[in-house]
Prior knowledge:
Blueprint: E1 4-11, H1 15-22, E2 32-38, E3 43-48, E4 57-65, E5 71-79, H2 90-103
Antiparallel strand pairs: 1-5, 2-3, 3-4, 4-5
Amino acid sequence: MAISRSQSVEISLPLDEAFEQCQKVHEAVPRSSLKGVDEESKTITVGVRISFKSWGERITLRLREAGAAATSVEVTSRASFPLTMADYGKNAQNVQQVVDWLANLPSATAPAISSADPAP
């Protein structure tokens, strides 16, 4: 069984908007690329290429609605090579990079204020 690390975080975006934003998550982790997007299960998969520290990793984001304007995101990084016995902190680093990136996402868009109202 491959080594993995997980963490859940809640962001202030509705589920659909969060899902759309999270499809850019590969920007958060160097040497990574988007591998899969499952609209139905709201799951995003990112692959990280081989490095001196590891044989590569798979990062998975699972999104769930946590209210009308909030989304829970479970971030999991797992070694790509199933017999990996030590990851030298690489999975924890991947998860932290994604969590930090999620924390910097813009909040839900505020309703637009119309400027067409006549002045009193």
